[in-house]
Amino acid sequence: MKKNIGFMILVLSLSLLITACSPEDVKYAFPLDSEVIEKVLAQEESSWFIEKSQSFQEGHTIYTLKNENDKIISTISSYSKDEMRHLGLNFFSISKLGKDPLKATINENEWEDMFKLACTLYGNSNDYKRVYREFVKYSNNRRDKEYGRAVWSKRIDNAHFKVTLNPLEEGTEDFTLIGIQIMNTDAYEDYSLNIVNMWKNAMKREKVEILENITVSDIVSMNEEDVDSTKGIIVKGHLENIRKLKDDELPSTIFPNSKAVPYKEDYLSAKLVDETGSIQVVLPASSLNEEELGQVRTHHGYYFGKDNIYVIALSVLSE
């Protein structure tokens, strides 16, 4: 018995020692200033350097960084307003880069370093290994050329991670890392609100009619009117019974005029409810929790008559 007690004390002491030796996260003031970025780059033994800085509004700075070959490699964006905190590391896609000799992309063997850099700048460096491990598992399972662009979401405490990948080139199963965003919940909601106009402009480019201020019962009746229609839908309501998507619930597409096949793990199933009724919908996997998704929100998405399904693209608390 005494041996067991002694062993337990030893284990507890070692645990406390390990905890005490773990470095504490440094939370830098946002927006980041150049001295902080230079300090972190030096700390990470990076050869990158700041080429220029910009600020388009109060509380927001963007730094353009070059690598040791004097090529633009990344931008670092940081934003702060009220309680919001938003960091973005953005990189270049080979498909958009073309033959531009002044820019460079991030190789896959550098991805972990990018996660560490982003987490260090945001103030949660101790989380980067956990986030990166889960991201690698996701990206390895998703490597199929038919799926196209990927957006992966993760939540740790009040930090929302959003990572974007593009296919390296058409017909391959490799990816280019496009961006890592980390934001708290206030910034996440603000970010979602700010991309509503981007969604509307995308609908205009695709020549898809947008139906605003309609109800769930209106959506239910749409299949009876035009089985081949594709519409942009804006409807207010809340989500219930949020769960993983079943194989037979996967729609044939998730964006108008897109040939990309949806990847099941990128989406969830839920019931959209308003005062007129309810309807089963598909929505992107989200870093918002069930309670947050259950709030009354304005949902922007697409109704595909072919599948008789409403696919939510984004949801905002207010406009």
**End-to-end Cα distance:** 65 Å
Count of strand segments: 13
- Major beta-sheet overview: 7 strands, antiparallel
The outline comes out as: globular
Strand order of the main beta sheet, please?
Answer: 1-2-3-4-7-6-5
Q: Helical segment tally?
A: 9
**What is the CA-atom radius of gyration, in angstroms?**
22 Å
- The number of domains is 2
Low-confidence stretches: 13-21
Average pLDDT = 87
What string, H for helix and E for strand, traces the elements in order?
HHEEEEHHHEEEHHEHEEEHEE
Percent of residues in beta strands: 25-35%
- SSE class: alpha+beta
Please describe the topology of this protein.
Elements (H helix, E strand, L loop, with lengths): L1 H20 L12 H10 L5 E9 L2 E7 L5 E10 L2 E7 L3 H4 L13 H12 L5 H14 L8 E7 L2 E9 L7 E9 L1 H10 L1 H10 L4 E5 L1 H10 L4 E15 L22 E8 L2 E8 L5 H4 L3 E8 L4 E8 L3
Parallel strand pairs: 8-9, 11-13
Antiparallel strand pairs: 1-2, 2-3, 3-4, 4-7, 5-6, 6-7, 9-10, 9-12, 10-11, 12-13
Helix pairs in contact: 4-5
